[in-house]
Amino acid sequence: MVAGIVEALFTAPAAGEPMLAHRRVELLPGIGIAGDRYALKTGHWSDPRWPDQELTLVEAELLEELGLPTDGLRRNIVTRGIQLDGLLGSEFRIGDARLVAIRVCDPCRYIETLTRDGLFTELAGRGGIRARILEAGSIEVGDAIAPA
User: Fold this and answer.
1) Model pTM above 0.90
2) CA 57 to chain centre
3) Which residues of 97-113 are buried (b: 16+ CB within 10 A; e: fewer)?
4) pLDDT per residue as tens, the chain (148 positions)
5) Residue 74 · residue 8 · CB < 8 Å
6) Helical ranges in 1-148 per DSSP H
7) Between 39 and which of 5, 32, 119, 120 could a Cys-Cys bridge form, CB atoms 3.0 to 4.6 Å apart?
């Protein structure tokens, strides 16, 4: 059963750097997306106190509602056709990779320095999710998101 699809994939080489769109990325357990700021330990939240920085997902529908571009919330994976909160605590697959949704990706005020004032409040409780990579694999735009 397909629950949704990958609409876009993004990485950034360091905190605050422009997001780079990709057709395909490699997911590495315990690391994240090869070449992304959190895999490289150069992200705004790269700190041992926040160990769950492997992967972030957000719904395209939310970005559209907020009038933001696809990379507007700086999440790695933009999805369509799935309510991501419903994955929390569950394993799922995208492409060759197996993941588990571990928690809500709460927005922080830092996003306002890169977008617009007031976005932090607009996002209350709906900033996407964080996932841990259980099995390495390639994922690409158009891949299905389905239960593992």
Assistant:
1) no
2) 3
3) bbbbbbeebebeeebbe
4) 568 999 999 999 888 889 999 999 999 999 999 999 888 777 655 555 555 678 999 999 999 998 889 998 889 999 999 999 999 999 999 999 999 999 988 776 666 566 667 666 767 778 899 999 999 999 999 999 999 8
5) no
6) 60-66, 110-114, 119-122
7) 32
Distance of CA 37 to the CA centre of its chain: 12
Q: Which residues contact 136 (CB under 8 A, 6 or more apart)?
A: 26, 27, 28, 29, 96, 97
Contact present, 54 and 36 (Cβ < 8 Å): no
Rounded-to-integer distance, Cα 124 and Cα 87, Å = 19
**Under CATH, to which class is 4-147 assigned?**
mainly beta
Phi-psi group of 81: left, alpha or beta (phi > 0 → left; psi -120 to 50 → alpha; rest → beta): left
